[in-house]
Hints:
Number of strands: 56
CATH topology of the domain at 16-160: Methylamine Dehydrogenase, Chain H
Largest sheet: 5 strands, mixed
Oligomer: single chain
Distance between the termini: 98 Å
Number of helices: 9
CATH architecture of the domain at 16-160: 7 Propeller
Low-confidence stretches: 1-9
Radius of gyration: 36 Å
Helix content: 10-25%
CATH superfamily of the domain at 16-160: YVTN repeat-like/Quinoprotein amine dehydrogenase
Amino acid sequence: MASAAMSVSNIKTAFAHTAIEPFFTEGTASVSEDQRILATAFADDVVLTSMDDGRRIKKIDGDSESVTTLALSPDGRFLVVCSRSLQMKIYELNLPEVRLVKSIKAHEGPVIVLSIDSTSTLVASGGADGVVKVWDLAGGFNTHTLRGHTGVISALRIFGQRGSTKWVLASGSDDTQVRIWDLVKRKCTAVLEDGGHVSVVRGLDFNVDGSLLISGGRDKVINVWSTKNYKLLNTILAFESLETVGFLARGILTDSQSQVIFSGGERGLVRLWSTTTGEELSTEKKILKTSEETSISDILYHPSWKNLYAVLSDQTITDQSLESIDLLTSRRILGNNGEVIDLAFVGPVNDEGFSPYLALASNSPEVRILSTSSLESSVLIGHTDIVICIDASSDGLWLASAGKDNEARIWHWTISDGRSGRFELYATFTGHLGSIGGVALARLVEQNKYPKFLVTGSQDTTVKTWSVPKRFESGAVVSKPIYTKKAHEKDINAVDIAPNDEFFATASQDRTIKIWDSEEGEVVGILRGHRRGVWSVKFSEHEKHIVSGSGDKTVKVWNLRDYTCIKTFEGHTNSVLKTIFISQGNQVASAGGDGLVKIWDIKSGECNSTLDNHEDKVWSLANRADDRVIASGGGDSVITFWEDITEQEIARKAEEAEALVEKEQDLANFIYKKEWKNAILLALSLDHPGRLLNLFSTVIANNEDPETIMGLAAVDSVIASLEPDQIGRLLRRVRDWNTRAGTFVVAQRILHVLLSTFPPEKLIEVPDIKKMLDALIPYSERHFNRMTSMMEDSYVLDFTLRQIDEVLSIKVED
């Protein structure tokens, strides 16, 4: 009995979810001066993200046209968004509330660049029409329209200080010119052509006191100009196409008198330069390069910061420290994880009993490591083609990955500086002739030791078991497996190892699952029954069971004692792509191409819960070590964490049931004492239509106050004092009562009180008032016509009776 009770208590039926959602697709990003808010373009929307914990603060819906540029004011009060619809929208932020200040058609072409001054007063916009405009942020009105460029505006920078009379705007264009505009005099004061650029100008910046101006472009040079006479002081050869340049605050990285320039472009590196000598101060090792071609599209910096943010073309933002000339990357912010093909909880187990990081295979050659509680992330570089599958050891310290480069890799968590840790490449396994679709690490890993073997299954239809090197040798390559077996007739999609390491399973596109002896590499059982290719296979840690998911839309649980199918779960409307055991082996979670995650009870065969938070195929599932959270990842780039709240839900329902009993007793007491006001309000809150109808019927039948509509003044006053939501609940009941001849009188009297008490302005506030009135009108007309007909018939009857009385009276007199 005790075990049965335990089994029931382990069944999960209710889940709450949180998610890591993509928030950056293209364009630029912006960070507030206090570094608490990150604004990014997500297709035609804008997403505001907390820089502290990575949570989404607000999503601002767009106008169905993609965002071309955006900017946050330094004080974080205003957000300016421009899209291809030619609209520029200014929002005032009082988070989580967002108020639209103004929506303006700013230019005749899309706005390409924006610049907000340091006082958060003005915003300059540059468009594809070659016009520069300046706007008041708080009022949303145009202050300047500046014409002179003959090409698309590609760079802007405002210089001005509160209380100063010097307000200058620098603009650059693909006409290769840099123009200087005096915003006080409203005219162009200089055109920087002599020794200037020969290609598109992409970066402009003034130093803190406004004495210097730098410009950088795709002609691979940085020009330093004096703002006294706008003469060229120095030309720095960058030898790369530049997308952004800027000044660091004085004293950063050098003595207080020196000025340092940063630049970013096609190399994907943040580079530092001296304004005086033109020499590069930085080395080539600043940014973690990946196998994908990445460039820097923007660098976000404020003079008060001790760091800067490099915005990369792959929607990654790197946070780089200015504490040293090396510009060490303190964290990587991944704006879009792409299609999440596989995932696993990794990292050393924390005090709460689970690994705090997620490893992702996300349709790229890199394995991404994400913190589950912040924006912190990193990438593991090594594969040369897309990573398809990953697996983690039970202690979270070992990670295996494999993919389309026909290779598998093992990564080991190492402590790098005495405090923080990271995964480092332990060994590479080569030998397969096709993409590796399944990889699994040996489950028995003793503390401070390594997994003894690795199993891989490939499109070449073979399965290989590899011996893991005993000692760490960075970049060690293993090319000779323990054994290689021809396993299936078609691609191998998944591999898993039993908890005791004695067996492993392979699932194939040939519709079969095979169970292998790990030591000998011999088949000990074949599981047949799926009608399509098998995408997933997983051993239970608590029973001799295995679960599989297939393209035939079913989930099957198999008994490993006799290799028979003991349960088949049907419910998905597309291929089942991933299956795992949860709840100490009492339940199965499955993910499908229908975008759903389903939870199944093995004993009853019922679906306990259907979890829906994905808009594309759900490729991956992982159960956290504490058995409290399931993570799912899909083709929509969303990673969802499903937390078990079954106990809380049971407790909540018990509390609600207890409160309901108490309210039921209160209602009975109110009715007994004829406290109609309290009784009606409580019956409304409990949503008891039968009790409510009996209350009103009793009051009308008693008719204690004939002068009132309902027959009792207290009831009329209760109805007249209802709030809009209460009126809505009552009207829904009136609508139903009005459809029946036996109850329409009650409905019409209540309706009479409502319409004679509340003005139209009040009734409009009632939710769905139009639908309810539309439903009331035809039945009310029918009742009115029937009553009119009855009245007419009663007049005929009265006339007939009077005539009979007259005839009888005449006869009596005779």
